[in-house]
Structures are given as structure tokens and as C-alpha cells.
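Justification of computing resources. Each target in the renewal requires a structure prediction run like the one illustrated here; the chain below, 260 residues long, is used simply to show the kind of job we budget for.
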Amino acid sequence: MTAGFSWCVRFAVAALGAALLLLCSAAPCFAGEYERAAGQLVKAAGERGFNRLAISSFTARDQAAPGEAAQAQQRLSETLYSMPGVGVMDAPVLEKMRERGRLWAQVLVRGQVYRTSAGLFLVIKTFDLSTGRPMGIMQINAGVEPDNFPRDLRDAPGGLKDSACAKASDELLTANLAAVDQKARYWAARAREPGFSYSGLDRAPGSELKDYATQQKFYALLNDYYGQDAPVTLTPAERTGLKELMEKETAFRRDCPEAR
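Resulting C-alpha cells:
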């Protein structure tokens, strides 16, 4: 696999010839404490030869609210997802893949959110899944962002926010959120075709899903549909709509290369 590819496959879960791909994203990282913690996690994992992290659901302690723990987990996951050289999946998604998912992960990341008189803090613990032994522990200030802050604009490069590309990116984000089930069925059906190989594609399925939560949902659905006994199909209307969406994505990559 050459460095010139616009996407990079971080793993392939084998199921009759590779049912699922996980990608690394080229999106920019969050600044601040979460970026610092993510950088240290990637560094510590890399020093042991690991680059595949499973992120467990974070727990709320003391006066912290469950929603604050969930948001802290999402922010750290998205920050890790945006960093090159590492594959990231939510542990609950990997659990749904049963043995295939468990065999993929190398490092388990757990988090607990505490509210103290000094503020909201996230304590992060990592474990080597090959031995079950702890790898390290760190803590950061876990201040959360307002729920109404638009994630796609917050993460976008500064010069992109007011451009036509920003509008197109926002429209594709919304369209993909609505079409994620159809895309999962489309690729599950493709993967079942005799002789199909991911190596013949110029982009890995799901690489266009820049929202971390949407991509996690896509992989979980893809795995479920691929493994079911019944045929995986789309209606003619769904195929037409999906074809139009994919054409828009191709045009976006062509016209807005800085937004890839």
C-alpha cells in the first residue's frame, strides 16, 4: 500500500474475504487537552508497536453526568480518529463483530469523568489487550463544548468555513447521515459478489464519512448486513438516490481538494 493513496486502510476484518474496512482520517485534530492526550496515547501505543485502539464507553463518577462522560468519550474518539497512523473503533461496535472485532483491537482505552471542586476531569487508562496488563494512566481537564456548536464547522480549516466547499461539505454530511443504512447495504451486497476485492477500489468504503459517529454506525451496519442470512438489497429508488449522492461526493473531491 503506497503512501500516495488518499485513504489508508487500518485493518481488514476477514469474513469470507474481508467484509469490513476501518480507515484513518485526514481531518484536522481538536486543539487543546484532548489533542495532547490523544497524541500521548498514539505515542505510547506506537512505542509498543500498536496502532489499533478500542475506545470503551466512558463512565461518570462523583457529580459528573452521564452525558458529560459520553461527550468526553466522543471528543477523545474523534480526536484520535483525526490523527494519522492509528485506527480507532468504539469498543461496543467491535463487540457486535464478536471474535473478528476482538481480534482486531490491540489497545483498550477506558475513561472516567469526575466533577470536583477544581472542575471536570477525564482520567484515561490504557490496557494491552494481548496480556490484559495496564499500559498507563493520565488525566486532562475535560471541559465539554456546547451541544449546539456545529461540529463540521468547528473542525473545518479556517479558509473553508464561508466558501461554497463548506456548504457542499455540510450538505454531504447531512445526506450521508440519512443514507448511512443504504450505503451499508450497498457495500455489503458488493462484498458478497463473487470475485469482489477491495484492492480494486481507489477509495475505501466509508472514507467519505467524515463524521466519526456516522462512520462507526456505517461499519457496524456493514458487518451486520454482510453476515446476515437473508439477501442484502436496495430498492430501485434507493439505488438511484445513492448513485446521485456518490456522484456529488466525486464532484466534491474534484472541486474541493483542500477539504478532503
